[in-house]
Amino acid sequence: MVALPAVAAPRASDDARGTVTHCPYCALQCAMSLTPTAGADASAGPPAPGTDPVPPLTVQGRDFPTNRGGLCQKGWTSASVLRTGDRLTTPWVRVRGELRPATWDDALDLVAGKLRALAAEHGPQSVAVFGGGGLTNEKAYALGKFARTVLRTPNIDYNGRFCMASAAAGANRTLGVDRGLPFPLEDVGGAQAVLLLGSNLAETMPPSLQHLAGVRAAGGLVVVDPRRSATAELTADGQGLHVQPVPGTDLVVLLALAHVVLAEGLADTAYLERRTTGLDDLRRCVAAWWPERAEQVSGVPATTLRAVARLLAAASPSRGGAGAYVLTGRGVEQSSQGTATVTAAIDVALLLGLPGRTGSGYGAITGQGNGQGGREHGQKADQLPGYRSIEDDAARAHVAAVWGVDPADLPRSGLPAVELLRRLGTPGGPRALLVHGSNVVVSAPDADRLRERIAALELLVVCDVVPSETALLADVILPVTQWAEEEGTMTSLEGRVIRRRKAIEPPPGVRSELDVLADLAARLGSTVHFGTDPAEVFDELARASAGGRADYSGLSHARLDAEPDLFWPCPATPAGTNPHPGTKRLFTRDFPTPDGRARLVPVDHVGPADDLRPGAPLYLITGRVLAHYQSGAQTRRVPALVRTSPGPYVEVHPLLAERLGVEDGTPVHLETARGGLVARTRVTDAVRADTVFMPFHWSGQGSVNRLTNDATDPVSGMPEFKVCAVQVTRWDGPWDGFEPVDAGLEPVAAGVRGDGGAHAPGTAGA
Ligand SMILES: Nc1nc2c(c(=O)[nH]1)N[C@H]1C(S)=C(S)[C@@H](COP(=O)(O)OP(=O)(O)OC[C@H]3O[C@@H](n4cnc5c(=O)[nH]c(N)nc54)[C@H](O)[C@@H]3O)O[C@H]1N2
Ligand SMILES: Nc1nc2c(c(=O)[nH]1)N[C@H]1C(S)=C(S)[C@@H](COP(=O)(O)OP(=O)(O)OC[C@H]3O[C@@H](n4cnc5c(=O)[nH]c(N)nc54)[C@H](O)[C@@H]3O)O[C@H]1N2
Ligand code: SF4
Ligand SMILES: [Mo]
Which spans does this entry mark as compositional bias, Pro residues (predicted)? Predict the structure, then answer.
């Protein structure tokens, strides 16, 4: 029998509306309150086949500076995932090829035994760890510490490499620090111009649109996207401009904007003089990108490029404007030149004198719930907690002292995500992989190749809440607590540290990841202490972060409960003095670089790694839809979301549709250098005629990542999800269509169906 979820007893942190917490999904971390659902039987098992689960908790939006009470459809249906029919409630172990329910003791003994044997025979680096930006700060910290002190492997990286790595690299090298938005989101409300590059906020963070109302009214919203996305639509009726470049040419657009700003004398010369270095080199590099040349590459008219540069300049403080922002999203970052593109975006912002001025700035829009904190506390191959470098001896000494280990025993940098995944099961590569919070076989590029690599592993262990497609390939699945079942902290896209609170008991049989890591550490004979109380783990994390770039040492769960408005850095202060107020806005006085100045960095355009060629004459771009989250592991299990967005599709322009001889709904075959798939067309003039678009939320036949390129950015290691070359043809062959996934509707039988549905071991045999 499965799960008898009971509602946790109310505590001081609950208000009249229930448990005060935040959404489980994206980095906007919308505030919500959770109350037991009236009439729902908290002790009921999974829903009967064919019926929607009654969520045990009712979700209500709560007023907060970011969401102002608003939630998107994913947020208000999020409690359904707590009671999905195939929620994992017991460990599963593969026996003679088949997953079977197991006890925790047997499962963990098996894992520990195998890890010990592999390390003894092949060295500690033969075990790799893959984390996720959805884990709480506490869990991300514990995972990094576990990898470095118990496994002693350098090979830990995480899905943030797919998400924020280029933005992080770009910001670090220019501004000296990577905090997605170095200002609170509400600041954007007063702007006169916003240049939004490769972000579809209307679908990916709908409540955030409230902060764009002002700029739209001022006619200053500029959206750069090869598609007329829902966000680009917001520029209609004089509210701004939609710039629709050739995919992968945003860097050229930005270089041309920088060119115009300099050529027309629109730069903030006093700011450049006082607060930056590197202007001469930048000037030389952008001189080559006059608007007419940029037009030839990007397809954006030179007149538009000039108009955008002038609009931004007019809104800039140095020219008496009300303020301007340059913001980047995954559309420009998930590129083999993502770091260069972010760098160019920051160069433009610096030329206009925006960063560090209240009411203006540059920011990258962080994606996952804890994408920000997840990259600060040690899941990244080259980082220790507090955003410290693992190659820096002082940082190693500090963190080793907190952990009670010898700094010499800490490994150095490991392989970044894509390379780590490519090397799985290869000679000299990792032979075991522990996955915490990512569904890589759906979300990583060149996914068919990844499945082959995973099959070559000697051990795959997946900790998850549901039997994701990746979990179904595992040798051992460990069921862990999620979101409303646990305490912790998340760091939002603004660098605001917020509390996640427990509202319901987890199903019996499920354990917290903190507990799993502590138990495994003990079974592996480690003497390093692993706390299982999230508040205690946070205190340790805070100490480990002290003095680092992301300093949390002045924070604690208790303080965050009392003050929900604290941003890092927030260092500890001497006893008897006032606590540090946190840092809402960065760069107001200087930049955290050695000379206190921001660095203008020259960059140049190369183009996509897999560009148009004979046999692949169109661009394939990818992204998201409103109703689904990431690999869909969670949202494909929410019936209301599946009804809104039942399956994969390919957006095709009417001119291309005519050339291909297809109509709305006709299946087409997509073929790239990596593989092929068949999906239904959606004919729309929102996409360019030389481009097709496909969302990545589905697996099996509908998984676009079977086609995407795993070429990476040379600085950040981020893969080029957004652009590759594709051949599209009408499909007249046999095709049984994509089975719409009736997620969570049936308690399903064991076995791998392979079509990416919501299926498997969850309740079988239980
Ligand atoms: N509904 C929903 N919301 C989410 C998520 C989700 O999965 N679903 N995930 C969360 C996470 S982790 C993230 S990272 C964020 C991502 O949030 P966004 O960055 O807004 O999301 P995407 O849809 O991946 O990409 C944005 C846009 O990039 C465009 N694009 C594609 N190629 C190019 C190009 O070459 N140039 C330009 N300029 N644009 C291009 C696409 O057409 C798309 O409209 O969303 C978060 N919020
Ligand atoms: N083509 C294409 N591919 C992309 C992108 C794109 O734009 N285009 N975007 C990329 C981006 S930005 C991202 S962020 C990635 C994300 O893709 P993934 O890394 O696959 O992220 P999720 O689908 O959120 O997977 C999270 C998994 O963790 C589980 N989970 C939830 N909470 C917990 C927890 O507390 N502990 C544990 N152990 N598990 C938990 C969920 O059930 C789910 O199975 O996809 C990338 N892939
Ligand atoms: S915008 Fe993001 S945080 Fe807000 S409700 Fe939707 S998924 Fe949740
Ligand atoms: Mo992301």
Answer: 46-56
